[in-house]
Specification:
The structure holds three protein chains of three kinds. By secondary structure, chain B is mostly beta strands. Chain B has strands at residues 6-8, 12-13, 17-24, 47-54, 57-64, 73-80, 84-92, 97-106. In chain B, the strands form two sheets. In chain B, strands 2-8-7-4-5 form a five-stranded mixed sheet, with no helix packed on it. The chains are: A mainly alpha, B mainly beta, C alpha+beta. Strand 5 (57-64) of chain B pairs antiparallel with strand 6 of chain C, so a sheet runs across the interface.
Chain lengths: 426, 107, 151
């Protein structure tokens, strides 16, 4: 899948190895990164093509909505829709609809809404609507807020349920009818259900204990074994990196970084693919089992180091600015940006259903992470992809340059955070 | 590649001390309800039995059901009166057995 | 590690939810009656008394796939009188039995720990049998989080 053009000659390989050894020599002698550039395969993708989501996932065409690589979502209306006569909706149908998870996460992912969903773990990114029936809002206002809240608040987090075709007019009418019945606080069965009283989850597991975190097998057994396996050209990682626990102690803390030869930001996972191919001839594509084990291992080696990525050089500065724009770009049918969930003035430190949303800072130091709900290790690019899937946006292949820019921006928000890899999360 | 079970046990204890032994075995514990990517039901395949003996005598055993989480973790206590060998065995639905052993010295 | 789709990995609650929405009877979800029957099999119908059993389970489990559980019973572990068996029941799992532990006087202490799967918010019940034929019980409710994102 990756074409290097021509096979490296013996002399070429020897030169590459000598260069790498020299790099290690310099790195061991000084605290500064080596002047030599690590060999990388430049052409071809670093992940499988064509990129497909797992075939078991419900196929949902979200191509007509913006993604991190294109801006195509339907425009928002300029003015609210006029509703002349009162809407005739079915409040019982509306009550079911607002709790229906198959309809884009459901309204109660973000709102407490009285008895909807049995008041079972509703979220609080949006205001509590349990008494909205007393707020004196007319049908037109309620309709437009659900249909496309941007006509009232251009900065809203609310998905444009009508404009993006997630709900039809009759359904919005049913929801409006239900909202008008809400006149009492939600009947929470316990304080755990009330998002304003629910204890914030604190991750207390010892993520570096193999008894607790299965990802430690990758670090303690799988990666060290892969390190010694000879590739097609007869050499292995260990041929140039005899003592990675000493020589690569800080490397991952400075990743991702701008790679001029590729014209993009290079993260650890893509580095593994391109470097392994160029040096030992292994095809360890991004998100393969081998790549995941090695990427986890390389980041693990830098545990305890503060994340410190370059955002000062000219190219890195531009990548950072692109990453910042991408993290604020509204994408998908649900029209969410990273910032909508993960920035302090919007969704961060609030609940979506029973899930706590964290700020951008603190979201990278434990990646790659074991996910107990998935029984697998997720690297940060995989996390990006599945966030997109969750908000009904087209995801990109893991080696997309947009993900690189986002990776760099996220790393900059995490500057100074001490690495502790692999993490363990739900 | 098979991963060896992991066992956490003190090397040395005082006679009569009650210790905690932690065990972990790599196993997906397929509960028989999951569908694979093609939509086919993946059949049940779990570790259904675990046993620990000390110097040949039974100490602790467990019958596991699909509700035990993947990579089964089992921790239990033992009062150690003498030096000896702990033997651990995990039995898979398919009849295969995974075994491990650890020695302990009593001071 | 073979890839697991998100829907597959959440097979327990997803199966339950799908069948519940379809309105069909749900064979993959046990009832309190089945759980009671399982306990009855274990006790042989003998009386069960509340016991000094500490159940360490989180109030909210962020994910039902791996919930840490620890049990500690205040009871001697001598040859004359010890906890010999522990039955763990999840009332709303596809099958009520979670595990059954066998302890001996050499256990020294009636304390076990493991990690379990819970298909949704429910009560976990522990029934302990002692060597002198008594049955002790305790229970704890766990709320299993419903995730916010659509899947």
């Amino acid at each position: 899948m990756i074409s290097t053009g021509r096979r490296p000659t013996v002399i070429g390989l020897a030169v590459a190895m000598a260069a790498s050894l020299a790099a290690i020599w310099v790195a061991m002698g000084t605290a500064e990164p080596a002047a030599q550039l690590p060999p990388l395969t430049i052409d071809g993708p670093a992940a499988a093509r064509p990129w497909v989501r797992y075939s078991g996932w419900p196929t949902r065409d979200t191509s007509r909505f913006s993604s991190l690589s294109k801006l195509v979502s339907p425009p928002r209306p300029d003015t609210p829709r006029k509703i002349a006569t009162p809407l005739a909706g079915d409040p019982a149908a509306g009550q079911k609809l607002v709790a229906d998870r198959s309809r884009g996460g459901s309204c109660i992912a973000c709102h407490v809404m009285g008895p909807a969903g049995s008041a079972d773990l509703p979220g609080n990114v949006g205001p509590d609507l349990s008494e909205i029936g007393l707020a004196g809002r007319d049908d037109e206002w309620l309709f437009n807020y659900v249909n496309d809240a941007r006509v009232y608040n251009p900065e809203t987090v609310m998905p444009p349920w009508g404009t993006h075709g997630l709900l039809n007019e009759a359904e919005i009418g049913d929801i409006v009818a239900f909202l008008k019945t809400l006149t009492k606080p939600a009947p929470f069965k316990s304080k755990l259900d009330d998002p304003s009283q629910r204890p914030v989850p604190v991750e207390q597991r010892d993520n570096l204990d193999a008894m607790i975190n299965p990802a430690m097998w990758a670090v303690e057994e799988r990666a060290p074994a892969l390190w010694k396996i000879s590739g097609p050209n007869g050499s292995a990682c260990v041929s140039c990196h005899a003592k990675p626990e000493q020589t690569l102690k800080t490397w991952a803390a400075a990743m991702p970084k701008w790679e001029a030869r590729l014209g993009k930001v290079l993260g650890v996972e893509e580095f593994v693919t391109r470097h392994a191919k160029a040096t030992i001839g292994q095809d360890w594509l991004m998100q393969s089992e081998e790549n995941t084990a090695l990427s986890t291992y390389l980041r693990y080696l830098a545990n305890g180091r503060p994340i410190a990525v370059d955002v000062e050089s000219a190219a890195a500065k531009l990548a950072y600015e692109r990453g910042k724009e991408l993290s604020n770009r509204k994408i998908g049918a649900l029209n969410f940006s990273c910032a909508d969930c993960h920035s302090a003035d919007k969704g961060a430190q609030k609940w979506i259903r029973g899930q706590w949303l964290g700020e951008l800072r603190g979201q990278l130091d434990h990646f790659p992470t074991w996910r107990t709900s998935q029984q697998s290790i997720w690297d940060i690019r995989k996390r990006f992809q599945w966030c997109q899937v969750a908000i009904w946006a087209d995801d990109l292949p893991p080696d997309a340059s947009e993900y690189g820019d986002l990776d760099l921006y996220l790393a900059a928000q995490n500057a100074g955070q001490k690495m502790s890899v692999p993490g363990i999360r739900h | 590649m098979a991963k060896a079970p992991r066992i956490k046990i003190p090397n040395e204890v005082r006679k009569g001390e009650i210790i905690q032994i932690k065990t972990l075995v790599a196993h997906e514990m397929e509960n028989g309800l999951r569908r694979d990517q093609g939509g086919t039901l993946v059949p049940r395949k779990i570790i259904n039995h675990f046993a620990c003996t000390f110097n040949g005598k039974p100490v602790f055993a467990c019958e596991l059901e699909p509700a035990v989480a993947a990579n089964p973790y089992l921790a239990f206590s033992v009062r150690v009166e003498e030096s000896g060998i702990f033997r651990f065995s995990w039995i898979d639905d398919d009849g295969t057995t995974i075994e491990a052993e650890e020695t302990i010295a009593v001071s | 590690m073979r890839p697991v789709s998100r829907r597959d990995a959440l097979a327990l609650p997803a199966q339950f939810t799908a069948l519940a929405l379809a309105g069909a009877p749900d064979p993959a979800h046990s009832t309190p009656a089945e759980a009671a029957a399982e306990i009855e099999k274990f006790t042989g119908g003998a009386a069960v008394e509340p016991g000094k059993i500490t159940i360490d389970l989180p109030e909210i489990a962020e994910n039902g796939n791996s919930v840490p559980l620890a049990i500690d019973i205040d009871h001697p572990m001598t040859a004359e009188s010890h906890v010999s068996d522990l039955l763990l029941i999840a009332e709303a799992n596809p099958w009520p039995r979670i595990a059954r532990f066998q302890l001996t006087p050499m256990s020294g202490r009636a304390a076990v720990a493991t990690r379990i799967r819970l298909a949704g918010t429910q009560t976990v019940r522990v029934v302990a049998k002692t060597s002198d034929g008594r049955f002790l019980t305790a229970q704890k409710q766990v709320k299993v989080t419903i995730g916010g994102c659509g899947g």
